[in-house]
């Protein structure tokens, strides 16, 4: 990842929340700081659940919604081309695609469904 300014927009929590405020410039700073915390917690929960194969469809849908909210925030704050600097729509599309697939047989969901 690297230090702030070395190819990334953040590197620690202070710089991350500063970048979050840039992306959510339409919100007061206290609200954008809270949204950054909630988004980070959601990303961790969605990621761990997807890796474990637990509630795949719900977590994939949540990931897609969160990613699309990020894209919309980027568009509002930085312009229509901003999300195309990163594969934001690819991530959202992949997450949406995952919501329509069958549960892998080695997932927790598959094990729970068989019982």
From TrEMBL:
Chief place of localization: membrane
Localization of this protein: Membrane
Coiled coil: none
Annotated keywords: Membrane, Transmembrane, Transmembrane helix
Superkingdom, natural source: Bacteria
InterPro entries: DoxX
Pfam families linked to this entry: DoxX
GO terms under cellular component: membrane
Lipid bilayer topology: Multi-pass membrane protein
Transmembrane stretches, start-end: 34-53, 60-77
Record-given protein name: DoxX family membrane protein
Organism: Mucilaginibacter conchicola
């Amino acid at each position: 990842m690297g230090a702030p300014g070395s190819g990334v927009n953040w590197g620690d929590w202070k710089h991350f929340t500063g970048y979050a405020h840039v992306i959510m410039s339409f919100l007061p700073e206290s609200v954008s700081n809270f949204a950054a915390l909630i988004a980070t917690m959601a990303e961790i929960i969605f990621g761990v659940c997807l890796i474990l194969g637990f509630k795949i469809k719900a977590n994939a849908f949540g990931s897609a919604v969160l990613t699309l909210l990020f894209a919309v925030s980027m568009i509002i704050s930085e312009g229509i081309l901003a999300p195309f600097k990163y594969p934001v729509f690819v991530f959202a599309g992949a997450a949406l695609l995952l919501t329509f697939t069958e549960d892998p047989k080695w997932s927790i969901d598959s094990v729970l469904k068989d019982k």
